[in-house]
Design a protein that fits this description.
Layout: E1 2-8, E2 13-19, E3 24-32, E4 36-45, E5 51-57, H1 60-71, E6 85-92, E7 103-104, H2 107-115, H3 124-137, E8 143-147, H4 157-160, H5 166-172, H6 181-195, E9 203-209, E10 213-219, E11 222-226, H7 248-257, H8 261-270, H9 273-278, H10 284-292, H11 296-320, E12 325-329, H12 330-335, H13 337-345, H14 356-359, E13 366-367, E14 376-379, H15 384-400
Parallel strand pairs: 1-6, 6-8, 9-12, 12-14
Antiparallel strand pairs: 1-2, 2-3, 3-4, 4-5, 7-8, 9-10, 10-11, 13-14
Helix pairs in contact: 1-3, 10-11, 11-13
Bound molecules: adenosine monophosphate (AMP).
Length: about 400
């Protein structure tokens, strides 16, 4: 079965076409600057030379139409006919409390995704646009929504509720949702395979450290806590997001700097984190280079970043009442030996040691556990697209067998 995976942003579409016979990727690519006359489509048929085109692409329907044209292109294509695509899987940011797992998209699901727009105002409208654009380009093909929040719906109430007036939870669904769920699910599952232990008897702390960063406590295959909250702003320090701060700072700064709501929102989401502290970059590669060149602000930014991960690992070791494995994933987690080393150096109280030689690796799956370590430490490249493709295939196969689960509230 060929499954088309889409991750639609407000002006971009990322895609991969999978052949689920062997879970191989046939082609992947990206459309950027949708809405303009000089949008770009970068397309790569796997194992062959790709192409980059500048096109007038004014909306998502045209963008997906162009991608489908590429997939069947005489030189760059990987399939003969669009009809070979049997299902489409969509990444959807916010499923609110309604979605505990991936679902087949119907009118009711689209309504529910729309209802979650206040919770995911930047992403859910774009995700929905992608769904509608895909429906109009490939009518009749089943579409599946895979939510970033769904994996964390197993959190207990004491972990997902904020100590705010309860009425805000009842009236406005104010609670922790958590994000990067597909990534945390994938790497914790893979950790169980590597350790050759049943996932339902394993305590994993999963550190997804990319441009956005979150950490999850996964007990017996279920998320019991995670660092992102109502929105992806809470938790760890990120590229441009602050993560946890004293909420009173907001009122204080708004008052002292005479800022409005939009400005403070932008300050916390786009001008904080590694960028805000270092003043040089949101990119960990540049922060590390700055540290090595003796840039003091880069060094402070790195120190805060690393310290906050370590604090969360300590907290989640307590939440889990023990840990079997710590996993590093995503851009920084997979590619920064320096960060992994610094985080693990401070985890001696848990009995963590790492093998520095094995840790000296980038972008590869590797067990970096030290010889005397009481806890396994793993680097596992994440693969959210594969999770989306697998869920999509599973749901579509279940429809064919006539036993689709009802899986939203
Ligand atoms: P992601 O959001 O998972 O794609 O991660 C992107 C981030 O990974 C970039 O912004 C960098 O900060 C980080 N990154 C990528 N490659 C490296 C590397 N070799 N060393 C350190 N950080 C890296």
């Amino acid at each position: 079965m060929k499954v088309f995976v889409l991750n639609c942003g407000s002006s971009s579409v990322k895609y991969q076409l999978f052949d689920m016979k062997d879970e191989s990727v046939l082609a992947k690519g990206l459309v950027e600057r949708i809405g303009s006359d000089d949008a770009t489509l970068t397309h790569t048929p796997v194992g062959r030379t790709g192409t980059k085109r500048v096109l007038s692409i004014l909306d998502h329907t045209t963008a997906i139409g162009q991608v489908l044209r590429m997939l069947t292109h005489s030189e760059y294509g990987v399939i003969k006919d669009i009809a070979e695509i049997r299902a489409v899987g969509h990444r959807v940011l916010h499923g609110g409390p309604a979605f505990t797992q991936s679902v087949l998209i119907d009118e009711e699901v689209k309504h529910a995704i729309r209802d979650c727009i206040p919770l995911g105002p930047l992403h859910n409208p774009a995700n929905l646009m992608g769904i509608l654009a895909s429906e109009s380009n490939i009518p009749g093909v089943p579409q599946v929504a895979v939510f970033d929040t769904a994996f964390h719906q197993t959190m207990p109430k004491h972990a997902f509720l904020y100590p705010l007036p309860y009425i805000l939870y009842e009236r406005h669904k104010v609670r922790r949702y958590g994000f990067h769920g597909t990534s945390h699910r994938f790497v914790s599952g893979r950790a169980a395979e590597i350790l050759e232990k049943p996932l339902n008897n394993l305590k994993v702390i999963s550190c997804h450290l990319g441009n956005g960063a979150s950490i999850a406590a996964v007990k017996n295959g279920k998320s019991i806590d995670t660092s992102m909250g109502l929105t992806p702003l809470e938790g760890l320090m990120m590229g441009t997001r602050s993560g946890d701060i004293d909420p009173a700072i907001i009122f204080y700064i708004m008052n002292r700097e005479n800022l409005g709501l939009e400005e403070i929102d932008s300050l916390l989401n786009k001008h904080s984190g590694l960028l805000g502290v270092s003043g040089i970059s949101s990119d960990m590669r540049e922060i590390e280079a700055g540290t090595e060149q003796g840039n003091n602000r880069a060094k402070i930014a790195f120190d805060i970043y690393e310290y906050r991960i370590r604090k969360y690992i300590g907290a989640y070791a307590a939440a889990l009442d023990g840990v079997d494995a710590i996993v590093f994933t995503a851009g920084i987690g997979e590619n920064s030996p320096m960060l992994r080393q610094r985080v693990c150096q401070g985890l001696g109280f848990l009995g963590v040691t790492i093998d520095l030689e094995k840790n000296d690796s980038k972008g590869k799956e590797v067990d970096i556990t030290g010889e005397s370590s009481k806890i396994r430490v793993l680097v596992i490249p994440t693969n959210e697209e594969l999770v989306i493709a697998r869920d999509t295939m599973e749901i579509v196969s279940a429809i064919r067998k006539g036993n689709l689960r009802i899986c939203y509230k």
